[in-house]
Amino acid sequence: MKKLIYIASFLTLALSAISCDRSLDEINKDQSRINNPVASSLLVPVQYNMAAIGYNRANDFTFDLMQVSLDFPNEGNSLSRYYITENTGAGFWNNSYRWLKQVDDLKRAAVEEGDKNYEAIALVLNAWIYSNLTDTYGDIPFSEASRLDDGVLQPKFDRQKDVYVKLLDDLKTANSLFITNKVLTGNDLFYKAETDANGINNWKKFCNSLSLRLLTRILNRNGEVNVYARIQEIVSNPAVYPIFQSNADGAKLDITGVSPLMPPIARPQDFTTGRAASEFFVTTLKNNNDPRLAMFFSQAKDLSNVNIGYKGAPSGYAFGTTFDYQPSNLNQNLAKAPLKILVYPYAELQFILSELALKGVIPGSAQMYYENGVKAAIEQWGAVVPANYFSNPNVEYKPEMQRIMLQKYIALFFVDQQQWFENRRTGFPVLPNNGGLLNGGAMPQRLMYPPNPKVLNTANYQTAVQQMGGDDINVKMWWNK
């Protein structure tokens, strides 16, 4: 299977010698930790590691559920057949909470130093990571999480609604904190805000674009939460709430291949071993005459090893299916440096605005936003939009959610778990059942909690399970009920 090597930390831990006249309290202090971290030293490790985790989630998880790729050949229990256990998301849970602790340290250090930009950035990172966690599991440890230093060993699980309300309030606070005419005192992997005069303004755009992602996710809860008003407040006042205006503004990480910015996958051959491209995704791109087809996939081969064009394997194919060809696979260049890890692309925001305009939540042309999103999604991969691209009946704008969401699905290629979240929210794209799907062919609505909270935080785990209606992959969460 595909394996990742994470850079565990970019920090150097300083060890101090113990003198003979120090007190017992001083000697017993944990010297393996930086007791007074500097904000500027804490940002880069979070950016690299959480971006790499997002890349991994797309590659090892989202692609299987959302029929981008599949284990091949395989007739056993696999993720692409909707076989999910309590361990399916254990690494994601553990790694996310590990780096959320460092985000908390970043915020504390920024407040201590009086650095408003680092404080705002910490709030944005916190909202980015926690929103992905709650959208994966539902109710999660939140208000009492990352508080080991305060003696909180068994944090309560907060309801998803409360998590969302707090994250949205935090993002609004972050927007007000940014000082755009100042640069950062340390390195910044997303926007080079230590040297780029526009860097902090780009962080501000990320902040407000993330608010729109979260607000659109909970669109069905308008009234219970003031969703429409918050969206309109952002979109109607770009001077106060700037959002992404181009691909250059999107949040992404450039992997150069020069240490420490190495690709998350150590060996490109591991990226394609034991897998195939999915028929649904490949056929969608073929029907669109999409210029990214060769960038994303290799050609299929007949049994004589001759190229036969792009042809995927049906995800969840029926047991006993035989193949007279070797299906297309993912292009190994997607795992090689230089590459961009997409955290939140501009194209995604354009599809959000297209949906909001279609539904009358905001003014503007849903078609314009849709076409902007399609173009941006192609250009972010370095491809060129064909001159007649929108004359293709499979691509031309139609005022319907299905058309917008299909193109958004393609645009979210390699964006952590967003394809899955959006499919659960909207039901689009409609994915085929090829006869071998488990779970009654129903898309899993969440992941089960991993073993750690069950064993180490049993009482709070049981309370969360009761209030959610069960620890089951088919339990819908608050924003989707």
Automatic annotation (TrEMBL):
Q: Which UniProt keywords apply?
A: Signal
Signal peptide range in chain numbering: 1-19
- Pfam families xrefs: SusD-like_2
Is Transcription set as a keyword in this record? Answer: no
Question: Which SUPFAM superfamilies is this protein grouped with?
Answer: TPR-like
The protein's name is: Starch-binding associating with outer membrane
Taxonomic classification: Bacteria, Pseudomonadati, Bacteroidota, Flavobacteriia, Flavobacteriales
